[in-house]
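User: structure tokens for this one?
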Amino acid sequence: MLKESIIQNALSIAQKTGADFAELFLEDTTTNGISMTDGKVESATCARKNGVGIRVLKGTSSAYAYTSGTDEADIYRAAEAAAAGIVGVGEGKSAVFSRRSYAMEQRIPFKTVANDERIELLRAGTAACREVSNEITQVSASYMDKVRRVLICNSEGTYVIDERPRTRSFVQAIAMKDGEAQTGRESPGCCGGFEVYRDRIDIVSAGRAAGKTAVTMLSGKECPAGNVPVVIDGGFGGVIFHEACGHSLEATSVSLGNSEFCGKLGQQIAAPCVSACDNGTLEGEWGTILVDDEGTEGRNNLLIENGVLKGYMIDLLGSRRMGMPVTGNSRRQDYTYAPTSRMTNTYIMEGTDDEEEMIRTMGTGLYAAKLGGGSVNPLTGEFNFAVLEGYWVKDGKIYCPVRGAMLIDTGSQILKRIDRVGPRMWMGQGMCGSLSGSVPTNVGQPRIRVTELTVGGKGGAL
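Assistant:
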């Protein structure tokens, strides 16, 4: 880590043009990766990334500069560049640092793990996937572990050291039949050391699940289009709330008036059965943080309670713009990005409704067991998401698998049309992209039912 005198000098230089706040962010990250196709290793990598970012604020104006060098001269040049983004004359202030240190537990540190062990994990997942059916023609698998070590210091006295270990694996199956191909994929991840593959991540189960989805969808019919009831499972099904609603609750959008939920605190924005939160404190979860990238400890932030909007996710700059306190949601991909408000583990909370009753009483519609990728406009809340594994329901019974289904609607409307929320919440892992790059986030929900949702598809009546 840097000498305190260098940090103090850098912060002083950064404030010389009148900034009322200066921040230094140092990062040293080590990443290991393995990729495999059909049990054969395609690549094995080990990378190290380090550098320093300097940010300055003056009121609601900001400037950011970074350097991949960590020598004293490099840091001072970055501080000069950041200062140049603020027009005026000022005098740097010496901060009295209050030191805090954080570190997520690693019982088996990644640096002690041989690549043979990583490879064997992927081969086990590949074999389990292959065993599902002889219709599976290809299995791709990959592994990643990363340890980020960061130092966050600012002119208000923050001095935080944090160590952040994470790992994630990915299994994708391709199944073929009569010239048709379908895919299934699973990508479990969490915080911690290599021990998570013994007590949290089951890559064999992940491989089987990926294979099952691919094979199941081979027999799927083209999904009909229309406005119908839709039951959406938990796990990655929570990506709809994340994309269509979560981004619209970040200060990144709200503070600039670019959100459909601006000015709606205390108002009913969802059905009374819907409560949701962003919880960065869940032990070991993929999106969990001990401290955010401005040095604020992670928190459990209630966003919606019984349908009423209770809060936003706010970083320091958003706090200044909105006149509201920070919430521990400031994040960035790495030192090359300035931080902004981002989600951590964001999910619809448990309800009390029976999971099977949701389907039994829905009439004709779609059961979306797994969702894929999609897109959203935070200003309007309009979204579209692909259904990776879906089933058509007729008269309250699952009729057949369907493929090619798309869910199309707006976040504000879907929240109001949820009429069932199940008692069992689970989460899925993803990487979320925004102004400050790509960060690990969990999405989640219990099984829910939406009374009406626009479903896109190429099929006719079933």
